[in-house]
Amino acid sequence: MEITLRVAELLQRLAHGVDQLDWDAVRPLFAERARIDYTSLDGGDPVELAREDLIGAWSAMLPGFDATEHLIAWPLVTRRGELWHVRSQVMAWHRIGGGAQPAIWEIGGRYDHLLRDRDGGLEIVAMTLEVAWQRGDDLRPRAADRAKRGEGRARR
Fold first, then answer.
1. Which of 2, 109, 122, 143 has the smallest CB count inside 10 Å?
2. Is the alpha carbon torsion for 8, 52, 60, 48 positive or negative?
3. Structurally, how many domains does the chain consist of?
4. Is position 59 within any domain?
5. Which residue segment(s) compose the domain that 24 sits in?
6. Radius of gyration of the chain from Cα atoms?
7. pLDDT 10s digits, 102-130
8. 156 lies in some domain
9. What is the spatial order of strands in the sheet that 67-80 belongs to?
């Protein structure tokens, strides 16, 4: 049970760090290079990214949202050789604007993470999103444009 608690904490640190734009908190959660697979959302092929490139991509877009909320829950953890495989549920809300008619993009599905032990902790070496459903328009391009203009939110 201890590993499940360690994994749950890592996933919550990831969600909180991303939503708070706290890249210093997110950075140590990833290996130097990680395989990122968002093909169920974007098509294309999985990519292997340096940790700083992944954080750079997120930090160029996510501040353009007025709010995000990522919930990663119910991790099922199994050992795969030297790695831990984690399957969890994810729900993500992304909002631009306020008032009665904000633009909202919601995603639900599953995450698969591969983690490895490192210096008494865990680090993400692979992350795959499996989108089960979406509601609303994909707001990422709009958020990226807003972030370039300094609109949206600052790190909390």
1. 2
2. negative
3. 1
4. yes
5. 2-148
6. 16
7. 999 999 999 999 999 998 899 999 999 99
8. no
9. 47-50, 30-37, 121-135, 103-118, 83-96, 67-80
